[in-house]
Design a protein that fits this description.
The chain is mainly α and 155 residues long. The chain has eight helices and two strands. The chain has a two-stranded antiparallel ribbon with strand order 1-2.
Length: 155
């Protein structure tokens, strides 16, 4: 499906920090800014298109557009009741902000979701995002999510 391919390409592009590619993909994806990305007959939901537009706008140097898209993505993913998509949006957005209370709150909210749902990848992203910019120290409660699973007999 075309939109799935474009959002996956946007992840590669923003990961590489390629502003020219980001601008091209941004223009292709912009008409779908109010959409959600699903694979198949909604077997997988990748969340709000605006999250990907926010990352592309940031990579292309369009800070104002990035902020608008991330705010839209926060609202859309919350309305979808998609906590994992919301957590990734919170971390993506926080990574684009200056150190401060808003960025710290976004990281802490994502880390809370990771703790609550046992999502080690999201927890690592939250810790890395905060450590990278020195604005968040993850709270620990004695054991991380993988240790808690092991303690109760999980894998």
């Amino acid at each position: 499906d075309w939109i799935t391919a474009i959002v996956l390409l946007s992840e590669v592009c923003t990961g590489l920090g390629d502003p020219e590619c980001a601008e091209l993909l941004y223009e292709q994806l912009s008409p779908y800014r109010q959409s959600n990305v699903v694979i198949g007959l909604a077997a997988v939901c990748l969340g709000a298109t605006s999250r990907y537009l926010g990352n592309l706008a940031h990579t292309a140097g369009r800070a104002g557009d990035a902020t608008v898209h991330f705010e839209q993505a926060l609202a859309a993913n919350a309305a979808l009741r998609a906590p994992i998509c919301l957590a990734h949006t919170q971390l993506d957005y926080a990574a684009t902000l200056e150190p401060g209370p808003r960025a710290s709150a976004l990281i802490e909210e994502a880390a809370g979701t990771a703790r609550e749902l046992g999502l080690p990848w999201v927890a690592r992203r939250a810790a890395d995002c905060g450590a990278r910019v020195g604005r968040y120290a993850p709270r620990t409660h004695g054991q991380d999510a993988s240790n808690r699973r092991e303690a109760i007999g999980g894998a």
